[in-house]
Amino acid sequence: MIELIKNTNINFLGKRNIAFVFSGIFAVIGIIAIVQIATGRANLGIDFAGGTAIQFKFEKPFALHEIRLALENGGMKDFDLQDLPTENKILIRVKTTEQELGQVSDTITNILTQKFPENKYVVDSTTVIGPKVGGRLRADAAKAVAMAVIGILIYVAFRFQFKFGVGATVATFHDVLAVLGAFYIMGKEINLILVTALLTIAGYSLTDTVVVFDRIRENLKQRQRESVEAVMNISINEVLSRTIITSMTVLLTSIALFFFGGEVLHDFSLAMIMGVIVGTFSSIFVASPIVLLWGGKRPFAKK
Amino acid sequence: MKKKILWRLILICVTVILAIIFFLPNTPAFQHMPDWWKNNMPNKGIVLGLDLQGGLHLVFEVEGDKAVEITTDRYASRLRELFAKKNVKADVNVSGLSITVSPSSAEARKIVDENYPTLTAVETGDRLVYKMSDKEATRIKDTSADQALETIRNRIDQFGVSEPTIHRQGENEVVVQLPGIKDPKRAIDLIGKTAQLEFKLVDDDARVAAELPQLIAPGEEENLLKQFADKIPEDTEILFEKKVNRETGAVRKFPILLKKQSSLTGDLLSDANVNIDSQFSEPYVSLSFNAAGAKLFEEITGANVKKRLAIILDNTVYSAPVIQEKISGGNAQITGSFTMDEAKDLSIVLKAGALPAPLKMLQNVTVGPSLGRDSIESGKMAGIIGTIAVVIFMIFYYRLSGIIADFALLLNIILLLGAMASLNATLTLPGIAGIILAIGMAVDSNVLMFERMRDELRAGKTPRAAVDSGYDKAFWTIFDSHVTTLITAAVLFQFGTGPIKGFAVTLSLGVSINLFTALVGTKSIFDVINSKRELKKLSI
Question: Is the same domain home to A153 and A38?
Fold first, then answer.
């Protein structure tokens, strides 16, 4: 029997204040990120902000500054470039303009054809999102996150008790905020695929939390004489090896996705990697302490 | 062997065989199957999303307000004719969505009320002002979206795209999905062109016509229109003819003064075809009018010999030839410096008919075929590497039991692919990520059980008892943890656009199947091992 974690007896809940400091910092950054996103000051993706994004794949290597110069001379304004030099790819993003939708991409392709006649290209992808659709997608994403949170709260409250629902929801929300905040600080694009990753993280982190809660519920029934805090500690220690093993396997696949999954899924898998780590942290250090803080009385006493 | 175990093993075998049959069309092996198999067994498999096979996803808004405007215009010109016919002296003017009849008279009112009950009078003093009723306006908007959908479908059909998806969304939007398109720009132009064909007489007699500049640079149109707004006669307008220099690509515009009233419109066409000019070997589009159109065309050309008749598509003049003589037979042609593709597309849009209202593009997501191919390849790669990593990790940590968990994992992957194929689900790039994540999460159920079993073993139970009670104790935890993931997957499915829906589908299928493989699959193996003889030690 190989055991990474052998009969641990770590006082996790005793360290809750240190954990709360970290969690507080994560949450604050996350909330700042949300405010910045809501006021349009974050690096919003085309799908949320509206605009045009075109990815070109050139036959030969190119110099980024030459493309920048060519576009500027061609009258393009307010664009940004992102290149993938190993594959001669470049992503050109233009935020909403007064020009008619669809014309922006024509202008860009015309400029590139005229300025770089010796370097042929293919258009890998074009994404044009009108402001109306962008606004709708933003609202949908916000609605989705809210619905997920409510759904989680209801289910956990139904299966456990309301205070557990609160603990699970806070822990889950905490993870979403932490990853969102990290993406904001790194200046990464906030887009639909990130929201997808965030909701997946929410689901994953919740699973983790529920497993801990399950054990707490079981132990609370069996260990009537011990304090709630002690029972929680015992339970977390008991499921610790499962928590870490499962996090390991999900991490393994997320890392595989990060390195081999291709450019489009790069940020998605990065978010997953961060989410798995912070989700593991939160199910140990956030979820149970919240339940403990919420009600000092013994949960499940009436059952 | 106990009967219960046997039944479970049979169940597993049957589901695996079914999964393989359903997934077969997605593998190269399907090509080598006999014909009776290809025809009678599942042959569609998992469908690739637009982001993986390449293609276009377009969302257009049908500008219903314009359709109401156009209808208002048409009512006004019909009213002018009716008034003239019945000798009612009244001017009919349109501004925006209202029709003004002045001076007011009982006869005029009667004519309007009898012929156009959907017009509501908003002013009945010295002049009559009519407006389309709200109900009628809504009906026109709704109909225009339906008509637009139909017209787009006709155009796409004639253009030739395999398996297009075209449907309405919300009040006034049309979604068009064209998989595997090679020339997205051409397709977008084809769909988006209103294709309102009009014939209008050129007003060369007006004094101001001579003052118009010969040609202007593109972008100068607005200024020119402003400059001449007050100078041109009321029944005329200025439109532009676009000339493109083939060699340099430079665009120049020629302003032309035209009668506002169109003499003939595209709805009187019966056919449009591409022909090649024998003299310059340039393609042109030949038009045939229906009987009414042919008669009208003959009348107009007969009455306006030596004048110019402009052929206008979507407010751009294509050509304005001089009428040499009366033209009967109902044929006309549109020339212009077309490429073959342009001429072909023009004939398609003219044949399919004009859109009832202009379209506004809201969204365009185009993925080239090479990016899609790359995505599939890297997705496969990540999936294989991720699976191998998890498989090795489980064997390393749980030994023989790890092999059982790995067996359950492979079962999971096979059944997931089979389930997706049986539903003809659409696989998208995020969907691939969903499968790979599901692989990572799939072993969780086994981990939960194994850890429980280890606890029981430590407590001194026999291997068989440890397996059974470990199982029972883990059951509700496994159930709870799966339901919570399903909740988020359901939310994702509800709100997601195409690619994200794909993710939600793979994730929720993966999670549900995982319940089956863990609770039926792994348990059966343990039972089989245990049923032979009581194990002294459990390799876990």
Answer: yes
